[in-house]
Amino acid sequence: MLRKLMKYEFRATSRTFLPLYGVLLLVAFLLAVFDQMHESWGESIPWLDTASMITSFVYGGLFIAIMVMTALVTFQRFYHNLFTDEGYLTHTLPVKPHTHVTGKLLVSIVWIVASIAVFLLSLLILSIFHLQPVDAKEFFTALAQWIPKSNLEGWIIFLELLLFLFLGLVCSILSIYMAIAVGNISSRHKAALGIGVFVGTGIIQQVVYSLGITLGIRSTWDLWKNVPDNTFPTWPIHGFLLGHIAYLLLFSALFYMVISWVLKKKLNLS
Question: Is the confidence at residue 131, as pLDDT, over 50?
Answer without folding.
Answer: no
